[in-house]
Write a structure and sequence with these properties.
Number of helices: 10
CATH topology: Rossmann fold
CATH architecture: 3-Layer(aba) Sandwich
Strand order of the largest sheet: 3-2-1-4-5-6-8
CATH superfamily: NAD(P)-binding Rossmann-like Domain
Distance between the termini: 41 Å
Shape: globular
Order of helices and strands: EHEHEHEHEHEHEHEHHEH
CATH class: Alpha Beta
């Protein structure tokens, strides 16, 4: 059998970094991955929820450290990650942080757009570059980038969010090819609707929404198998793929039934003052 069909599964991580650890999915991922002896760097900005993530990690036997450097300062964030990697060689970088902002007929305040790009995209580039040299030198490691079904079916009410998630999907696919043969695996996570506070802000249809604990298990199992693409729910993905084959006028007609509005982020003022929720 060809070698590429018999790739071994990656070993369980001994040290990992999780961004967006304070959101609904982030807390679920913390619980899903926490294991005895696992070093975990949990990144987030909400002190209470970060303390909850720490409690969950310790309950699973993990050894957590907390990081509160804002993702809107990507260089400082990357420096903190690189320092952690020197102390605890990172086997898994799981980039789960994300924010979204709504728009009205294409009008999205530029400062909000810049914030979404910084948190969702720029910080991911910096984080990857912070751990990649060590992973390549060791000849092992996993990088997981959280995209969204919005990358497959653009959301008219989520302009910058859709753009950043599509960019992450493309970046992950290109990075995977770039690292072929290095021992470093790259996975792109493409979830649909997950029942989290971020989704609660989206008023409108949310088909096939799943609870965060289930989403976390799917992600954990997919990464344990070394899958390049972890997309769920599969039925929603299939329907989106079929919609993309339709003539654009017909696809636009269907899209009108799924339009929604985004409730302003209650942490937006806090973010402008220097804090970030950084969670999904």
């Amino acid at each position: 059998m060809p070698a590429f069909l018999t790739l071994r599964r990656p070993a369980p991580p001994r040290a990992m970094i999780l961004t967006g650890a304070t959101g609904g999915l982030g807390l679920a991922l913390t619980g899903a991955f926490a294991a005895p002896g696992l070093h975990m760097l949990l990144a987030g900005r909400d002190p209470d929820r970060l303390a909850e993530a720490e409690r969950i990690a310790r309950a699973g036997g993990a050894i957590p450290e907390l990081l509160t450097v804002p993702l809107t300062d990507p260089r400082a964030f990357a420096a903190a990650i690189a320092d952690y990697d020197r102390r605890h060689p990172v086997d898994l970088l799981l980039l789960n942080a994300g924010v979204k902002t709504g728009n009205d007929q294409g009008e999205e305040p530029l400062d909000q757009t810049e914030r979404v790009i910084a948190v969702n995209l720029t910080s991911a580039f910096h984080a990857v570059q912070a751990v990649l040299p060590g992973m390549r030198q060791r000849g092992r490691g996993q990088i997981a980038l959280t995209s969204s079904m919005a990358a497959l079916s653009p959301h008219a009410d989520l302009l910058s969010y859709t753009a950043t998630k599509a960019a992450l999907r493309g970046y992950g696919a290109a990075l995977r090819r770039n690292l072929r043969g290095s021992g470093v695996r790259v996975s792109v996570i493409t979830p649909g609707f997950i029942d989290t506070p971020m989704t609660d802000r989206q008023i409108g249809p949310a088909p096939m929404m799943i609870p965060p604990d289930r989403a976390a298990r799917i992600i954990r199992n997919g990464l344990a198998r070394g899958r390049a693409n972890i997309t769920f729910p599969l039925l929603l993905c299939l329907l989106i793929r079929l919609e993309n084959l339709l003539p654009k006028p017909l696809a636009d007609l269907i899209d009108r039934h799924y339009r929604g509005t985004i409730i302003p982020d209650p942490d937006e003022k806090k973010a402008r003052a220097g804090g970030e929720p950084f969670a999904r």
